[in-house]
Amino acid sequence: AQSVTQLGSHVSVSEGALVLLRCNYSSSVPPYLFWYVQYPNQGLQLLLKYTTGATLVKGINGFEAEFKKSETSFHLTKPSAHMSDAAEYFCAVGRGSTLGRLYFGRGTQLTVWP
Amino acid sequence: GAGVSQSPSNKVTEKGKDVELRCDPISGHTALYWYRQSLGQGLEFLIYFQGNSAPDKSGLPSDRFSAERTGGSVSTLTIQRTQQEDSAVYLCASSSTSGSKETQYFGPGTRLLVL
To answer: Residues of A with CB below 8 A from B32's CB?
Structure first.
């Protein structure tokens, strides 16, 4: 079975500070891993994904995430937060197969203080 | 269109009524997904269509929920005899091919409120 745990439903940082959003997963097969961002009243937008290859993945808006198999983690980071980063962030895992559904975490609401 | 579109954007209905939610995927995308986003439940998978294959209905919460995809494009999610617990945002997504490594592109959602 697949599951995703996002530690911290709310994270607050100051503008310019490091952003760290945590995601741990369980998967019985090698996973595909995703981070999506959702702005108010909008759908989800892909930030980055890991499928195979390099474990450090760079995405849009300066975000990156590292797949650590030994820790079953895929934490999202950004060196310097910007006000426009305030949104809800979802980690998701897909099975390493042809099946398409994603399993999502509960989401982390990021607040950025000026 | 440039992205996934959904209609209506908002729907208010009375308990016991039927509702239909529509999704227009990105042109040429063969895979289409429905998810439900509700407070306290996060994002739940509902149903997945891939080409002409039988859909994966494993996420539908009850037999009041059904979905179809006509002509391999537009999809309609129908909820019969709506209940207050059906209130949520219903999100549709599409991807160019099947497979969970493919990027899913999401629509803006339909916000359903059952009174």
So the answer is: none
